[in-house]
Specification:
This protein has about 240 residues and is α/β, with parallel strands linked by helices. It is built from seven helices and 16 strands. The chain has two domains: about 5-130, Rossmann fold (3-Layer(aba) Sandwich), CATH 3.40.50.2300; about 135-245, OB fold (Dihydrolipoamide Acetyltransferase, E2P), CATH 2.40.50.1020. It has helices at about 15-25, 40-50, 65-70, 90-95, 110-130, 185-190, 235-245, and strands at about 5-10, 30-35, 55, 80-85, 100-105, 135-140, 140-145, 150-155, 160-165, 170, 175-180, 195-200, 205, 210-215, 220, 225-230.
Length: about 240
């Protein structure tokens, strides 16, 4: 599975262990965009920082613990890893009903951390797909897009790229664009047998229309539009070019 995670928030009150975690994440091309020691401080920054992953210690400063934070964050559909150095049955019974959440015991190692990240990411994608019915009609190699009161039959090969916008996706062709209530993860699953590549958490691109790939600023160009690519997917895209060429 292609990982789209490249931004994480750490909620850990042990500064030295937070630094150790940050180094492990950097080794797998995940940037720590925020480090907090309390539930409230993490929640205050969640929407602004828009992380792809939360790593939360159970024992935190303040009156609330990491499990409280994990329950609050369920509505965001962000993959969560809960960590602790003091595992017990009470913690496990509270965590087991959480979605896209894993439980790891300190000290962590790079292999278990990486494999767990892939697991919770996959679970989060499945939740998104299952709860997001498509607002468009699909036929073989073509999609019916509704715009105003008219339907437009667009060959899939004519789609340049698709951009996520909250619970909606905007599909771009050379001369039009269509907005539909559908998640990008669901669109990705629909187009899995075509030449589309998830370059970033917010973009799905048609490889056939790719003009250039700038390694310096990690941007792709499709029809004069610069599209970001996550650090984790740069090499995957280059490997894909080798297959196509």
């Amino acid at each position: 599975m292609v990982s789209l995670i490249d931004r994480a928030i750490l909620v850990e009150d042990n500064a030295s262990y937070a630094l150790e975690l940050e180094m492990m994440l950097q080794d797998i091309d995940i940037e720590v965009v925020g480090h907090y020691t309390t539930v409230n401080s993490a929640l205050d920054s969640l929407e602004e920082l828009a992380p792809d992953l939360l790593i939360i210690d159970i024992e935190l400063d303040g009156t609330q613990n990491g499990i409280d934070l994990a329950y609050t964050c369920q509505s965001y559909n962000i993959p969560i890893i809960i960590i602790t150095s003091n595992p017990n049955e009470d913690y496990f019974s509270k965590i087991k009903d959480l979605n896209h959440t894993a439980f790891l015991i300190k000290p962590l190692d790079s292999y278990s951390l990486r494999s767990t990240i892939l697991l919770v990411e996959k679970q989060a994608r499945m939740v998104e797909i299952e709860t997001s019915p498509p607002d468009l009609e699909i036929r073989k190699d073509q999609i019916f897009f509704k715009k105003s009161k008219a339907y437009h039959l667009i060959p899939i090969e004519n789609i340049l790229y698709i951009e996520a916008d909250g619970d909606y996706c905007i599909t771009y062709t050379e001369d039009n664009q269509f907005t539909n209530k559908i998640t990008l993860s669901l669109f990705e699953s629909i187009l899995k047998n075509y030449n589309f590549f998830r370059s970033h958490r917010s973009f799905l691109i048609n490889i056939q229309h790719l003009k250039s790939f700038n390694m310096n600023n990690s941007a792709l160009t499709i029809h004069d539009k610069e599209i970001p690519i996550s650090r984790a997917n740069r090499k995957l895209l280059l490997d894909l070019f080798n297959v196509i060429i």
